[in-house]
Amino acid sequence: MALRLFNTLHRQVEEFCPLFPEAESVGFYCCGPTVYDFGHIGNFRTFVFADLLRRYLEFRGFRVNHVMNITDVEDKIIRQVAATGLTLAEFTGRYTDAFLADLGTLSCRRPHHLPRATDYIPQIIELIRRLEARGIAYRAGDGSVYFSINKYRACGCRYGQLVTLDPDAQRRTERVSGDSYEKDDLADFALWKARVPGDGEVFWESPWGEGRPGWHIECSAMSMAILGSSFDLHLGGEDLAFPHHEDEIAQSEGTGLQQPGRPFVKHWVHAAHLLVDGKKMSKSLGNFFTVRDLLNRGFQGREIRFLLLSAHYRETFNFTLEGLDAARTALSRLDAAVAQLTEKAGSAAASDVPTSGPAAPASRSSLETALTEALDDDLNVSKAWAAIFDWVRETNAGLASGAWDAAAAADRLRAWRRVDEVMGLGARPAEEFPAVALALLDKRNAAKAARDFATADAVRGELKALGWTVEDSKTGSRLKRL
RNA sequence: GGCGGGGUCGCCAAGUGGUAAGGCACGGCUCUGCAAAAGCUGCAUCGUCGGUUCGAUUCCGACCCUCGCCUCCA
């Protein structure tokens, strides 16, 4: 079996085969954030999904070269820079740091490369020059440089690979028409935007005068600079398919840098949106939660990650706080099983180091087999969770019946750790018990030992008021946060 | 208006031409001093109407509802 993934280019599920099987790594690009504000969890759904795919590829034995751009020059950023009086680097640096911190909170592996658009101005200019030399880019009256879709098509290239849009049937919004007068054609898009007074100090010298990069060119420049002119995987949110990715293909393939027969990107993968109350989560609607918002409400990053990974990436997913509560409950059941297994395994588990890469079939656990089967199927996480929760039930039942010794428990634990290399939930953070709670626990244990149940129950009530519940077991009592 | 997704148990969410995974919630039982946790167990005929078929939730058609893209956007 091999990994099968939906490819937006062909609108079907296809087996993932590296473009260059002999190459040492798989080229993996995911459109990153525009750093003008904190990202919301809708944005992070895509990044968590990208992380899952990366982890799974690595689990499957591929070496992944993961690139995520940081777009640090753009209209909203320029407005904010002007408004705050900060320099571009100061302003975008803050949100870049916040973004990376949030990525860490959600247990996403750090991309190997995090190129910033402003560090790639020479490459961007070079790309535009190539397009200009091939007659595909043209300079408009306002000094900006545009991409000509007609010229591009005249070169035998296809515009409209990711979406089917009939230009004549499109809705003409004010914004589109208002934007069009400098362009030869409505659908053309800016490669280089001439400096205007509102840009303040944000501009670069170029063969076309002072200005800044257009909307989509930075991704073409950075992805090709780092991964080459043809690479394996390009991901992003579904809203980026058009126009961003379509234009990216046009700019990249318009340069003619690819080997004959090689596409710019072999496999395009798009993640569906997160909804809130049935509507797309977005900055403009104001219906968004940032990772920080949820942390402030007492949720953990891994709980958010779990929720974001609970639905298939190509289905829209409705985010609710109730859903997050349910995710927390489910995750704590998993945590409890893993914790008990760890306890049972004792020192037998200590030497285990989870490893990536394919396990020999003989040593593959049934959990791992089920996970692989599920994820090979276009990353069917629902199926994967079903297997994981079946495993949780088996684990609890086996633990309760005393069926396993330490070594058997360690085996099961090892299986889980391998699977968690992909899911990325990690271990539950160690709980800090306040001294008061521990004192009350002792008091209750003493009362219980003396069979003074009235006192024991009263103390349990006190603990409950403090937000702790008590779980009695054969081996003793433990505290658990309510 | 054009294009593309969805409508499966109270909620979330897989899936299949032969009567439907998993999670959360809920009920019963076991365990427990009582609980909690855990286990066992119960709980859906798949938007509507037609059609194809021995048989459709799964295929086709129509309709209703809903979300997204077409404009910066994960």
Terminal residue distance: 43 Å
Question: CATH homologous superfamily of the largest domain, by name?
Answer: HUPs
Predict the CATH topology of the largest domain.
Answer: Rossmann fold
CATH class of the largest domain: Alpha Beta
| Proportion of helical residues | 40-55%
Provide the descriptors you would attach to this structure in a database record.
Four Helix Bundle (Hemerythrin (Met), subunit A), Rossmann fold, 17 helices, four-stranded parallel β-sheet, RNA-binding, 3 domains, alpha/beta, 45% helix, four-stranded antiparallel β-sheet, single chain, 15 strands, 482 residues
Summarize the structure.
The chain has helices at about 40-60, 75-85, 90-105, 120-135, 150-155, 175-180, 215-225, 240-255, 290-295, 300-310, 320-345, 345-350, 365-375, 380-400, 405-425, 435-450, 455-465; strands at about 5, 10-15, 25-30, 65-70, 135-140, 145, 190-195, 210-215, 230-235, 265-270, 275, 280, 315-320, 470-475, 475-480. With about 475 residues, it is of the alpha/beta class. About 45% of the residues lie in helices and about 15% in strands.
What does this structure look like?
This protein has 482 residues and is α/β, with parallel strands linked by helices. It has helices at residues 41-59, 75-84, 88-105, 121-133, 149-154, 174-178, 217-227, 241-254, 291-296, 301-308, 321-345, 347-350, 366-376, 381-401, 406-423, 435-449, 453-465; strands spanning 4-7, 12-15, 26-30, 64-68, 137-139, 145-147, 189-194, 211-213, 231-237, 265-271, 274-276, 279-280, 317-319, 468-473, 476-481. α1 (41-59) links the parallel β3 and β4. Residues 174-180 have low confidence and may be disordered. The chain binds one RNA strand of 74 nucleotides through α1, α6, β9, α8 and β12.
